[in-house]
Design goal:
Distance between the termini: 43 Å
Number of helices: 9
Strand order of the largest sheet: 14-13-12-15-16-18-17
Radius of gyration: 21 Å
Helix content: 25-40%
Largest sheet: 7 strands, mixed
Structural class: alpha+beta
CATH architecture of the largest domain: 3-Layer(aba) Sandwich
Strand content: 25-35%
CATH topology of the largest domain: Rossmann fold
Order of helices and strands: HEEEEEHEEEEEEHEHEHHEHEHEHEE
Shape: elongated
CATH class of the largest domain: Alpha Beta
CATH superfamily of the largest domain: Vaccinia Virus protein VP39
Number of strands: 18
Amino acid sequence: MQARPLLEARRLDTTLIDLGTTRIDTSADLGYSRTTAQYDDEGVIFASGARASWPALEHIATDDSGCYEVLGDHTERIQQMSTWSGRLASLYPTTGPPALLLSGTLMHRIKGIHPGQDTQRKLQPLGRLAGVRVLDTATGLGYTAIDAARAGARVVTVEWDPAVIDIERRNPWSAELFACEMIERHQGDVAEVIDSFEAAAFDRILHDPPVFALAGDLYGGAFYRQLRRVLARRGRLFHYIGNLESPSGARVSRGVARRLAEAGFEDVRLQPDAFGISARG
């Protein structure tokens, strides 16, 4: 999304002239912050010294589903093939933070909403987060863990796929995941990692697994019983599912609600705005 304005500025040549150099306001980190870059006949030069050529920017501008890094004097699409799952993980541009794309399936909502807003809707059913312990069962790009920590929670988050962790490290919007002392990261299958957590270890659980077709065990009764075990009495759970009004969302949500109740959760409720189900321990 940053490439097109750069190309347009070059075409119109309406940028400011400062001490003989042509400068332009842009972003060097996928829209996370703003900076000033220089451009010349060959391309754009960022404050770091990295350079993106005009042909590279023209290519990026034609890719509506990819995000790119500028590395030295070349650009590279941010994607990684998982040797564990055989799935391609990549960043998908939006009007806000980029979304995670796994094997062509978006892991965030982007229609009429961007992933940052989607994250806030997922956290809202959990209520107050200041001073509480939160389990984030599927890190993804880390947006929920980051926002929960910003709200004052101490967060434990688990990610299975090394390819996704590589994408986290290359996504500027995920940087806080590695810098925040309030976030404790684990790598592994959460269905196994959860065995190491003590009973009632968490006050809140954000369960945002991949779609059912990719991670059916994380929608099963056995895993829900483990979630109930590690959730404190009267603690809150939010389980992201997807659009509850779609045929697949309606079908999955019925089964999820039943199995959560069977696992011992109470006050199981649909949360249509957040695309999921809330419950209490």
